[in-house]
Structure to design on (175 residues):
């Protein structure tokens, strides 16, 4: 009985050591891209001069993956709604094998805005989720982080000047 307890304690300790050896950080926790034109294509780098960067702060090399996630309805930032279709977004490189401890990876994000009047003036949210990828057949704990993207779509409707009709001025009769 005591041998089983000791064995269980050793397993818990060894698992805990590996659990604390994982970590990911980024310098870009949120991206806001405003007034995107319907029918146009944008890259994060062309719009901001930066790419997504993820640092492996763990003590061992890690396999990393990036994927698009759409927030659940009602959970987007106030004033925004979930992106209607993840196919609008492409990640330049989404699989990174054996990223060394302390190393940084970079990837660009492309947004292809559909040419539709139905999306004009809308505000959308999505995430790029970066996470460790499990090895086949190995059960373990992973880590991940979400980078929130907020995009606004330009309203192409031509603004009409705000003209308020004026009543003609009454002439003062001469006395």
């Amino acid at each position: 009985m005591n041998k089983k307890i000791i064995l269980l304690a050793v397993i818990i300790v060894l698992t805990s050591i590996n659990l604390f050896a994982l970590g990911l950080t980024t310098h870009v926790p949120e991206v806001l891209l405003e007034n995107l034109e319907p029918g146009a294509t944008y890259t994060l780098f062309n719009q901001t001069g930066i790419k997504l960067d993820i640092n492996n702060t763990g003590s061992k090399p890690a396999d990393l993956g990036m994927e698009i996630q759409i927030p659940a309805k009602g959970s987007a930032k106030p004033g925004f709604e979930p992106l209607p279709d993840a196919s609008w977004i492409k990640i330049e490189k989404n699989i990174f094998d054996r990223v060394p401890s302390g190393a940084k990876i970079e990837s660009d994000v492309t947004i292809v805005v559909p040419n539709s009047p139905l999306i004009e003036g809308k505000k959308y949210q999505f995430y790029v989720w970066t996470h460790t990828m499990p090895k086949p057949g190995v059960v373990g704990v992973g880590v991940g982080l979400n980078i929130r993207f907020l995009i606004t779509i330009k309203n192409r409707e031509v603004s009409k000047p705000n003209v308020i009709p004026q009543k003609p001025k009454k002439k003062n009769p001469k006395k």
About this structure: DSSP finds two helices and twelve strands in the chain. The CA atoms of residues 41 and 112 lie 4 Å apart.
